[in-house]
Amino acid sequence: MNNYLFFLIAMSVLILVSCASSQDKELPPLITVKQVDLKQYAGLWYEIAKIPNSFQDHCAYGTTAEYKLEKDGSIQVINKCYDENGEPDIADGVANIVDKKTNSKLEVSFVSFLGIRPFWGDYWIIGLDENYKWAVIGTPGRKYGWILSRTPSLPDETMQKIFEILKSQYYNPDSFEISAHKK
């Protein structure tokens, strides 16, 4: 339980720092996809790659994110990974839609104090397969980024296409590390 609490607090602090630092950078605005069908987007996603971050340092393999649509319009987020000892770590959170016209800009929170969520982080969908087989997630300051897939791996040609999306959004694809799915 202590690791879980530490994970949540660390993630919240990093999100706040990223929000503050994103204003310092002189980058063009991050461009999201034109439209996201949240019903199609919901479900299980495997983390294919990420920009390394301290709130996921304990994740050795098997990182997934599951999104479930709630009746109130929010999205339940369940992030899961396994540490070096094979112990699962699960973080429950919520996502809210920031841009209801496109559904491509969301904010996520994994910390709740007495039902209040004081910390939120950007979750912008900047790349999405037309059949919802893969997605690219970014933040305006480009400090965080994830490549997600419905399967634990993607073909090289798909990864090249994703890397081109990242480059067009002023991300360095070399900043991303491939996520392991088996120990």
Note down, in words, how this protein is organized.
This protein is of the alpha+beta class. The protein has one domain: Lipocalin (Beta Barrel), CATH 2.40.128.20. It is 21% helix and 33% strand. It has 3 helices and 9 strands; from the N terminus they run ααββββββββαβ. The chain has helices spanning 2-22, 38-41, 156-168, and strands at 43-50, 61-69, 75-82, 88-97, 105-109, 121-128, 134-138, 145-149, 177-178. It has an 8-stranded antiparallel barrel with strand order 1-2-3-4-5-6-7-8. A hairpin with a 6-residue loop joins β7 and β8. The chain is globular.
Runs in which pLDDT lies below 50 for 5 or more consecutive residues are: 1-24
CATH superfamily, by name, is: Calycin beta-barrel core domain
CATH class: Mainly Beta
Secondary structure tally, helices: 3
Mean pLDDT: 88
CATH topology: Lipocalin
**Principal-axes shape call:** globular
Instruction: Give the strand order of the largest sheet, numbering strands 1, 2, ... along the chain.
Output: 1-2-3-4-5-6-7-8
- Radius of gyration equals 16 Å
- Strand-and-helix sequence, N→C? HHEEEEEEEEHE
Structurally, how many domains make up the residues?
Answer: 1
> What percentage of residues falls in helices of 4 or more residues?
10-25%
User: Tell me about the biggest sheet?
Assistant: 8 strands, antiparallel, barrel
- Ends: how far apart? 23 Å
The CATH architecture can be named as: Beta Barrel
Number of strands: 9
Look at the helices and sheets and give the structural class: alpha+beta
